[in-house]
């Protein structure tokens, strides 16, 4: 199986650093994962000085093949290939991943102003669409992970949305 970890455009040093630690990687391996791609952005971590913009680097650790890079123009291919996405809790990323029917673990970034990611993550977790955790608890969550227990996110219904907007604006 294949996992993808993304931090988006904002630094999330602790999440990226955890992706290279044995306590995280060994749990991924025990769950049957053999590869991990890490989109590290501009995060500061032990290997940050080794990766330049536009460059992909690879290493193997704890039996997991790891590829890491800063940014790509699109994450579409990464989402498609992933069996599990581990990510910051940005709304755009969450919707992109859930609409593809992928299992998702989100970690709200506590360094962001007003910790706005926490509210969205908590709500979607309470509805069963994803798992929300902290960097510290991520290995424990991986130990208990049952990807089949995560509900499939409903597909977007453009006509329904348009009707709600039309009603709200008094057009019908």
TrEMBL record:
Cellular compartments annotated: Endoplasmic reticulum
Superkingdom to which the source organism belongs: Eukaryota
Keywords per UniProt: Endoplasmic reticulum, Glycosyltransferase, Transferase
The protein's enzyme class: transferase
GO molecular function, one term: N-acetylglucosaminyldiphosphodolichol N-acetylglucosaminyltransferase activity
The protein's Enzyme Commission number: 2.4.1.141
Ranges of residues in domain Glycosyl transferase family 28 C-terminal: 4-151
Record has Electron transport as a keyword: no
Catalytic activity: an N-acetyl-alpha-D-glucosaminyl-diphospho-di-trans,poly-cis-dolichol + UDP-N-acetyl-alpha-D-glucosamine = an N,N'-diacetylchitobiosyl-diphospho-di-trans,poly-cis-dolichol + UDP + H(+)
Ribosomal protein is among the record's keywords: no
A Pfam cross-reference name: Glyco_tran_28_C
Gene Ontology CC terms: endoplasmic reticulum
GO annotation (BP), single: dolichol-linked oligosaccharide biosynthetic process
Record InterPro entries: Alg13-like, Glyco_trans_28_C
Its biological purpose: Involved in protein N-glycosylation. Essential for the second step of the dolichol-linked oligosaccharide pathway.
Subunit record text: Heterodimer with ALG14 to form a functional enzyme.
Entry protein name: UDP-N-acetylglucosamine transferase subunit ALG13
Gene name, Swiss-Prot/TrEMBL: ALG13
